Amino acid sequence: MNTAFPDRTEFRKNAGEIAWETEVWIADNPDHMIHFDGERFPGP
Questions:
Q1: For the residues of 1-44, what is the DSSP string, one character each?
Q2: In sequence order, which residues have a C-beta less than 8 Å from that of residue 32 and are 6 or more positions away?
Q3: Has residue 24 been placed in a domain?
Q4: Total structural domains within the chain
Q5: Does residue 31 have a pLDDT over 80?
Q6: Residue 41 within a domain
Q7: Does 42 fall in a domain?
Q8: CB within 8 A of 4, min separation 6: which ones?
Q9: Which domain range does residue 29 map to?
């Protein structure tokens, strides 16, 4: 599952609700993804 936020402020407001094994992308830092546990990032 993937979740996107416009900025870190919105991410912080919702971080406690993000499901395990989720990839998070933040628009104001587009080159970085946050992975909530799990073994690896999604492939191409």
A1: -EEEESSHHHHHHHGGGPPTT-EEEETTSTT-EEE-SSS-----
A2: 26
A3: yes
A4: 1
A5: yes
A6: no
A7: no
A8: 24, 25, 26, 27
A9: 2-35
Tokens of 11: 């991410």
Higher pLDDT: 16 or 44? It is: 16
Residue with tokens 């993000």: 18
Residue 41 has pLDDT above 60, yes or no: no
Q: Round to whole Å and give the CA distance between 27 and 10.
A: 11
Q: In terms of Cα–Cα distance, which of 18, 22, 16, 15 is closest to 37?
A: 22
pLDDT at 29: 94
Identity at 44, one-letter amino acid code: P
Mean pLDDT of 9-32: 93
Q: Is residue 40 a part of any domain in this protein?
A: no
Q: Average model confidence (pLDDT) for the chain?
A: 87
